[in-house]
Specification:
disordered N terminus; 28 strands; Rossmann fold; 13% strand; 5-stranded parallel sheet; alpha/beta; 28 helices
């Protein structure tokens, strides 16, 4: 119920936050009980009628009064809701209040199709036939009920069609108990283990201090390792914190230390190795009381070895539920079909064997097939991109002119892929189906296939040198034993080359420098690479990534033909000696400037010499100089040459104060100066012409050491978000601009005075605003006075 506010002036005048309308015999002892308990735990005052009141036929006056005294109503439409004259009279009164007084209405469709309620078909039709027989003399009442039902059924609400399965799982999780509990969800592939875990995670997460959902652990651990999973778990719970450790045992220590007193909800999805469990959730005493850990797996023995507290084994869908799911996916309807389609639907459902995933896929394909581009995207994801970031996949496929934005959206709607936390995921059964389609095209000659992903096939192609000329993308990411690349002379159509994480790669064949079709070259973290070809003239190149190439000594000379280059990432290239010579803007075409983005890593001497060279890039829009060991004097005084700059990141450098020249960037919208050791933001240290930053919308200053903020900050007339998180020396905040909608002061443990206190607290209802661990501020506030002020109570 994320739409329900916890406090407001309107609620303060009402006796109840919520009036709960439901059919007692349908849902009182299952869903409605769970809902009522959840609302109560959240501090939401809810009116639920006493069963004794339902004894009579006419609605009790107490219920009308309760509706009037409630800020909103939640209506649980169940199978027999419309059979109750009591419920319909409640509904009519709720609609009356909604139309006259703005009373809020939130419908829940519990195993009911809203279209049946609107059209008053099936059981609803039967219910009204009874009412019309019973109330022959009061047709006006019947019409009032019909109108109310039609109106509320048209309001967007929640649909619950898997209630029983979730209730059984909730009973095992039992968040009401103050212990630490590990629950396993076990079953065959495609039986909706992940779907159940995700639904549980979504509904229960508000009751925990931190949460983490680790998707497809088996796949991620193979690609990225256990340390990456440990960091992901910690980063999801401690948002905006960076965890830098490189050893599993060190990760265990950090997880134990940080979570042992924190009530958390953690889901480990698709676990197939007991080491996954040991390294991520170890023992019960790693977590604070009330914590819940959910593990999904196909391996029942693994769960027993982990000594889980309880186990839930979902079953295949019964015929009724399977038909309902199939109809929803194939015909976009919850109701059973008649005549020609019902027999065919039953055949399809029987073929699927009650597996939810199979039913969803078959239903999605039932009427609508895939266009050729969408088929190609499906096969590419199956062969290469399962578990990759969506933005990266789109970038690669866009180069193949597949229109991936549209195609991926189609695949999502057809339940062939899912997007979770910006990553694309395909179920392994579907992935194997896609790969088998590719294998069957050319069984005996892998060189003639459209896609290659298996090691033996790739080795065959490279050693025998067969149709490299057809190759458009080569991904050798993580090939830790690769020492040198092949000759690319025959790979004239290559568009994407990914060698990221090839840590033993020493030599790149000179032929790479003349790949005219290459758009993306990724050599990130090739730590042994010492040099590139002397000259590169890849005229189609848009992205060149060399970050983490810590042994790279010489940067190649850039040919003037490289006019399409958009992004150059050199972060962590500490030893390059000739960067300023071969990256001089004069070597780049003028029409490159509007798209050029420079990402430069930590450097000691060459970096300050490099900065003035960038000032001629008058159309540069984004500049990232994070962690470059820069001081205040390294920023050029006349930075106004970067007249189109919108995004500037100077975090993790060493500035005593904000460089004065930055105020000349009139188009700058995003300024990041976090963790820069800034000690003073006094009135004399921010120039009087701070209004020169007239376009600034985001100012990020977290982790600095200043004590106060100058009053001149109010001149930033367009500022939307200011973030002072973990500025532990900060003692006071001045009046903030009226445009502010997002303020972060979490971790400002010395903060005592906030001039815009009411404004800050009014913003706490917004998604991003944070104000936790402000201990001094809490001590100086009179809680009762503040509460009255917020509630506008005398």
């Amino acid at each position: 119920m994320s739409s329900l506010p916890s406090t407001s002036s309107s609620i303060s005048r009402k006796k109840y936050d919520v009036f709960l309308s439901f059919r007692g015999e349908d849902t009182r002892n299952n869903f409605t009980d769970h809902l009522y308990d959840a609302l109560s735990r959240s501090g939401i005052v809810t009116f639920r009628d006493d069963p004794k009141l339902e004894a009579g036929e006419e609605i009790a006056p107490e219920l009308f009064k309760a509706i009037q005294e409630s800020w909103c109503s939640i209506i649980v439409f169940s199978q027999t809701y419309a059979f109750s004259s009591w419920c319909l009279e409640e509904l009519a009164e709720i609609v009356k209040r909604h139309n006259n007084d703005g009373h809020k209405v939130f419908p829940i469709f519990y195993d009911v199709d809203p279209s049946d309620l609107r059209k008053q078909k099936e059981k609803v039709e039967e219910a009204f036939a009874r009412h019309e027989e019973r109330y022959k003399e009061d047709s006006e009442k019947i019409q009032r009920w019909r109108n109310a039902l039609i109106q509320v059924a048209g309001i967007k609400g929640w649909h619950l069609n898997n209630g029983v399965r979730l209730e059984d799982l909730y009973l095992k999780i039992n968040i009401g108990e103050d212990d630490v509990r590990i629950i396993g969800i076990c079953g065959m592939g495609g039986i909706s283990k992940t779907t159940l875990a995700r639904a549980t995670y979504t509904q229960m997460s508000p009751y925990f201090e931190g949460k983490s959902f680790l998707t497809d652990i088996r796949e991620v651990s193979e690609k990225c390792g256990l340390v990456s999973l440990q960091k992901q778990l910690l980063s999801q719970i401690f948002l905006d914190e960076c965890f830098n450790f490189f050893d599993v045992h060190e990760g265990n220590v950090i997880i134990t230390h940080r979570l042992s007193h924190k009530k958390v909800l953690i889901v480990l999805d698709n676990v197939d190795n007991i080491q996954h469990v040991k390294c991520l959730v170890g023992r019960h005493d790693w977590f604070g009381l009330g914590s819940r850990i959910i593990i999904t797996t196909r391996d029942e023995h693994l769960l027993r070895s982990c000594q889980v507290d309880d186990m839930y084994m979902p079953t295949t869908l019964n015929t009724k539920d399977a038909l309902q799911l199939f109809n929803l996916k194939a015909f976009h309807s919850y109701t059973m079909l008649k005549d020609d389609f019902i027999e065919l639907s039953e055949h399809v459902v029987n073929y699927a064997g009650g597996l939810p995933l199979a039913i969803e896929v078959l239903g999605s394909f039932f009427f609508d097939g895939l266009e050729e581009r969408e088929k190609n995207i499906f096969l590419d994801i199956a062969c290469f991109f399962n578990g990759e970031k969506k933005d990266f996949v789109i970038k690669v496929l866009d180069g193949c002119e597949f229109f991936p934005d549209i195609g991926i959206d189609v695949l999502i709607k057809k339940s062939l892929i899912k997007v979770d936390n910006q990553y694309l995921w395909m179920h392994e059964l579907l992935q194997e189906l896609g790969r088998q389609i590719v294998r069957e095209k050319c069984v005996g000659e892998p060189g003639k296939r459209c896609r290659l992903w298996e090691e033996t096939d790739v080795h065959h192609i490279l050693t025998k040198n067969t149709p490299l000329y057809k190759l458009k993308m080569m991904n050798l990411k993580g090939s830790k034993n690769l020492i040198e690349t092949p000759d690319f002379t025959t790979a004239s159509n290559l568009e994407v080359l990914i060698l990221e994480g090839c840590t033993k790669l020493v030599d790149v064949h000179p032929s790479i420098g003349v790949l005219k079709s290459l758009k993306l070259l990724n050599l990130r973290d090739c730590k042994s690479l010492r040099s590139l070809p002397t000259k590169i003239g890849m005229e189609s190149l848009e992205t060149l990534i060399l970050s983490g190439c810590s042994s790279l000594v010489r940067f190649p000379e850039i040919d003037g033909k490289m006019e399409r280059l958009k992004t150059l990432d050199l972060s962590g290239c500490c030893k390059v000696e000739n960067l300023s010579e071969n990256l001089h803007p004069e070597k780049l075409r003028p029409n490159l400037y509007s798209l050029f983005k420079v990402i430069l890593g930590r450097r000691t001497n060459p970096m300050p010499r490099m900065l003035p060279l960038l000032l001629v890039l008058s159309s540069l829009r984004e500049l990232n100089l994070r962690d470059c060991n820069l001081c205040e004097g390294d920023i050029p005084r006349d930075i106004s040459g970067l007249s189109s700059l919108i995004h500037l990141d100077l975090s993790d450098n060493n500035f005593i104060r904000i460089p004065a020249s930055l105020t000349r960037l009139s188009k700058l919208e995003f300024l990041q100066l976090s963790n820069c050791n800034i000690c003073t933001l006094g009135e004399g240290d921010i120039p009087s012409d701070i209004s020169g930053l007239s376009s600034l919308r985001y100012l990020l200053l977290r982790g600095n050491n200043f004590i106060s903020i100058p009053a001149s900050i109010i001149r930033l007339s367009k500022i939307y978000s200011i973030r002072f998180s973990d500025c532990k020396m900060l003692k006071s905040l001045p009046e903030l601009p009226t445009s502010i909608e997002d303020v972060w002061i979490d971790g400002c443990s010395s903060l005592e005075v906030v001039a815009s206190l009411s404004k800050v607290f009014n913003l706490l209802d917004s998604v991003g605003t944070k104000a936790i661990n402000c201990f001094k501020l809490a001590e100086n506030m009179n809680a009762l006075t503040l509460l009255k002020k917020l509630l506008k109570v005398d």
